[in-house]
């Protein structure tokens, strides 16, 4: 490759140009990495998906899609992007949120059909409301 500063031909592995002493672009710390795509939005969706019951399921699914699509973009061009931690965290949180929402819905359905009685009195409460 050629030095960006003085134009001298230098070794491809060179970190600093031996002629002028300027750091080469190829050195990893010199490359300005772009933030991962969808990182923040995937993280926000997955966190809200985790804390908001029922409706959060939709957010978890959006977070899941965003983090997968972000990871695919990074996979196709790993040199271009910085840390993928945000996407990994978003992916984990959205999976937990999704599974949590499914379990929550299943429990609600099971309680509704009377197969599971958690003793929460939730449905007695509704029944009493309806009987008033
Ligand atoms: Zn140089």
Radius of gyration over C-alpha positions, nearest whole angstrom = 26 Å
Approximately how much beta-strand content do the residues carry? under 5%
Q: The biggest beta sheet, please?
A: none
Strand segment count: 0
Order of helices and strands: HHHH
Q: What are the low-pLDDT stretches, counting only 5+ consecutive residues below 50?
A: none
The number of distinct helices, counting runs of at least 4 residues, comes to 4
Number of domains: 2
Bound molecules: zinc ion
Shape: rod-shaped
Overall mean confidence score, pLDDT: 83
How helix-rich are the residues, as a percent range? 40-55%
Distance between the termini: 83 Å
Question: Which structural class fits the helix and strand makeup?
Answer: mainly alpha
What does this structure look like?
- Helix 1 runs antiparallel to helix 2 (56-76), helix 1 (39-51) runs parallel beside helix 3 and helix 2 runs antiparallel to helix 3.
- The protein starts with 38 loop residues before the first helix and ends with a helix.
- The radius of gyration is 26 Å and the shape is rod-shaped.
- The chain folds into two domains: 1-31; 34-106, no CATH class.
- The protein has 132 residues and is mainly alpha-helical.
- It has helices at residues 39-51, 56-76, 85-112, 122-131.
- The mean pLDDT is 83.
- Bound molecules: zinc ion (ZN).
- Zinc ion (ZN) is lined by residues 3, 5-6, 8, 17, 19-20, 22.
Ordered list of secondary-structure elements with their pairings:
Layout: H1 39-51, H2 56-76, H3 85-112, H4 122-131
Helix pairs in contact: 1-2, 1-3, 2-3
This protein binds zinc ion.
Residues 3, 5-6, 8, 17, 19-20, 22 line the site of zinc ion (ZN).
């Amino acid at each position: 490759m050629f030095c960006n500063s003085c134009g001298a031909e230098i070794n491809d592995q060179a970190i600093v140009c031996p002629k002028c002493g300027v750091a080469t672009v190829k050195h990893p710390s010199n490359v300005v990495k772009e933030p991962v795509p969808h990182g923040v939005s995937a993280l926000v969706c997955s966190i809200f998906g985790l804390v908001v019951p029922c409706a959060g399921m939709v957010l978890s699914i959006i977070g899941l899609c965003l983090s997968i699509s972000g990871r695919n973009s990074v996979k196709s061009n790993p040199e271009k992007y910085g840390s993928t931690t945000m996407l990994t965290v978003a992916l984990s949180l959205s999976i937990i949120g999704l599974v949590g929402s499914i379990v929550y819905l299943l429990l609600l359905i099971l309680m509704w059909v009377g197969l599971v009685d958690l003793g929460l009195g939730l449905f007695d409460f509704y029944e009493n409301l309806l009987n008033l």
